[in-house]
Structures are given as structure tokens and as C-alpha cells.
Amino acid sequence: MGAAEQVEQVSSDGTCGGQQVNGGVEFVVYLLDKTIASAVKGREIGNEKLIGVLDFQNITYRNVDARGLITGFQFLQAYFPERLAKCYIVHMPRFFVSVWRMVSRFIEKSTLEKIVIVTNDDEKKIFIEEIGEEALPVEYGGKAILRAIQDVQVPTLEG
Q1: Cα distance between residue 100 and residue 38, in whole Å
Q2: Tens digits of residue pLDDT in 122-135
Q3: Hey, what CATH class is 4-151 in?
Q4: How many C-beta atoms surround the C-beta of residue 45 within 10 A?
Q5: Residue by residue, what is the 3-state secondary structure of the chain?
Q6: In the chain, where are the structural domains located?
Q7: Burial class (CB within 10 angstroms; exposed 0-12, middle 13-18, buried 19+) of 25
Q8: How far is residue 115's CA from residue 3's CA, in Å, rounded to a whole number?
Q9: pTM of this prediction?
């Protein structure tokens, strides 16, 4: 697809990449900043797209922040409306279905159309094909090594 890809795993303690997920906008800005800065250095064309993978495998009812999700998607829509190519949600627990129904009411239709909840083998196959095995971490069926976002090296700006 030619888009920068970022995988985020939410831990049961409510952190993601060492950052507290409940930060809402701050967390979204952190993710976007790291993803954009680390993925396009030297290949900037001005309209880079992102593929997000939200892994909710370790999320529990206790640490779900629906308001943070709403705020994050609204921020993405308002300030980066065309950056998101796709957002895949993997390992979504059953209880999250009701949370997602509520959250999705606050997300614009154009953004909702870019969100795919991977629930079966056919969707997983498309997920792997769209991202590409070379870019997708082994944990998700690819060949890449998953790096924590805090370990991603961001190139320094020149000039």
C-alpha cells in the first residue's frame, strides 16, 4: 500500500509503548509524531499515509478509555484527515463490541470506512496482504520484528 505502518499493543496496565494510554490527544500526537518522523525520512512527498494496527489482546474492561479513543479519532479526523489509509483492530475482546458501538457513533463515516476489525481468517489474510509480510511483525503473521514505539529512532531534522 506504500503507507507507514505502526502497531500498538495496549497492555493490561493501561500503557502502550511505555506511555499511559489515557492521555487521549497527547498519546495520539505522540504516536503520529513518531510514526511520521520515523517512516518517511528521505521519501517525503507531502501526503504520506499511515496504516494503524490497534492490538487489544491485553485490554480489560477496567482499563478501557472510550473517551480517549473518541478523542484520538476526532483529533486524527480534525488535524490529519487524509493521513489514515487504514486502521486495523486485532484481538478485540467480546466486551469491547459494546464499547466500540458507542465509540463509533462519534467517528465520521469517512474514517469509519477505513477501520477494519479483524475477526476471521479471511480478514486476517487481507490484513497481511495490505500491510505486507515484510512490514508486518511476526506476531501478526508477517516477517518483521515488532519494535516498541519508544525504541524507534527518529532521524534528526536537517537545516
Answers
A1: 30
A2: 999 999 999 889 88
A3: alpha beta
A4: 7
A5: CCCEEEEEECCCCCEECCEEHHHCHHHHHHHHHHHHHHHCCCCCCCCCCEEEEEECCCCCHHHCCHHHHHHHHHHHHHHCCCCEEEEEEECCCCCHHHHHHHHHCCCCHHHHCCEEECCCHHHHHHHHHHHCCCCCEHHHCCCECCCCHHHCCCCCCCC
A6: 4-151
A7: middle
A8: 15
A9: 0.75
pLDDT in tens, 4-43: 555 555 554 555 555 555 555 676 677 777 666 666 556 5
Length of the chain counted residue by residue: 159
List CB contacts of 149: < 8 A, sequence separation 6 or more: 6, 8, 16, 17, 18, 19, 30, 31, 34
Cell 479483524 maps to which residue?
A: 118
